[in-house]
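Note to self: keep these together.
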Amino acid sequence: MDTLTPAEVAQLIGTSPNRVRQLLRDRKLLAVPGSGNGKIPADFIQDGVVLKHLAGLLTVLQDGRFTDEEAFEWLFREDESLPGTPVQALRDNRHTEVTRRAQALAL
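Structure:
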């Protein structure tokens, strides 16, 4: 998995590293667990923006009592029924399907 620093993400999305760190604190963006917010998956950035529905999906997972580690693992786990990973489905604009699965897990 390719990762980016907050400074690299800031440059890609046209904002400051402080704003990226705020996105991480607000759970609108997720870093690799254990990296101290130093490694952000490059897959979370597409066409110069944070994936459109990532923040909402992270909220659904948090509401379902997922830890950051569990949410991260779920986002990058292969799912034959999607197919691919939930992150790939978000990148392919299949957010409704992914959000529905996250809500079902939270029950």
